[in-house]
């Protein structure tokens, strides 16, 4: 089966403590976090609409969360299983990963 690529679909917007990818039809994915303290965020949820799964939506959301954490000088505790797996697999997230 050919893998879908939705790298250029929708726009990522920040909504309170979440990043959401929206298309004309509405939201297709989100990643949420809860501030634990001034410099620590708990990444607690990632969701991608079934029609868009397997097409880089979750990765785009995680990348945006990590960019924001770097800009704010924050560390991320991965409570969400997707974020935890990605942090373990990808050393480029080591600077924001709070164990």
TrEMBL record:
Pfam families: Acetyltransf_CG. PROSITE patterns: GNAT, GNAT_YJDJ. Residues 1-99, 11-98 form the N-acetyltransferase domain. Keywords: Transferase. Gene3D superfamilies: 3.40.630.30. InterPro entries: Acyl_CoA_acyltransferase (IPR016181), Gcn5-rel_NAT (IPR045057), GNAT_dom (IPR000182), GNAT_YJDJ (IPR031165). GO terms for molecular function: acyltransferase activity, transferring groups other than amino-acyl groups. PANTHER family: BSR4717 PROTEIN, PROTEIN NATD1. This is N-acetyltransferase. It comes from Paenibacillus spiritus.
């Amino acid at each position: 089966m050919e893998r879908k690529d939705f790298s250029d679909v929708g726009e990522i917007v920040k909504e309170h403590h979440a990043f959401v990818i929206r298309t004309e039809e509405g939201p297709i994915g989100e990643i949420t976090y809860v501030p634990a303290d001034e410099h620590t965020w708990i990444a607690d949820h990632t969701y991608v609409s079934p029609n868009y799964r397997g097409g880089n939506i979750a990765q785009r959301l995680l990348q945006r969360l990590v960019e924001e954490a770097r800009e704010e000088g924050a560390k991320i505790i991965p409570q969400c299983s997707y974020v935890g797996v990605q942090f373990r697999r990808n050393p480029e997230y080591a600077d924001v990963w709070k164990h």
